[in-house]
Write the structure tokens for this entry.
Amino acid sequence: MDRVIKFRAWDKQEKRMVSVYTLLFGSRGLSVSSPGKKLPDYELMQYTGLKDKNGVEIYEGDIVSDGDTERIIAWDWHQDADAYYEYGVGFNINPDLAKQFEVTGNTYENPELLKEAA
């Protein structure tokens, strides 16, 4: 199965999540644009290729829950695999395991979820 490569970004100026339509690599580094706007200050998040139990796409920075514990999704570049991290403890995640979780928010729009879990 081929993995779909797509991104979203947290617009730090407008404090909102936006879809990413273009990534430009140039002499000044990476440049990101969303519909009709270049983002000067952003956090870029990649789609993991996985969906939760409700069919919601899972991105880096998402907070997922299995009903007991909330975890933060992060990409494990060393393993070349998706992984989720429970406050520094890594666990591999696969499509079957992802379907046991539900995306409850993300670290930018729902930081209170992290405080509740700590």
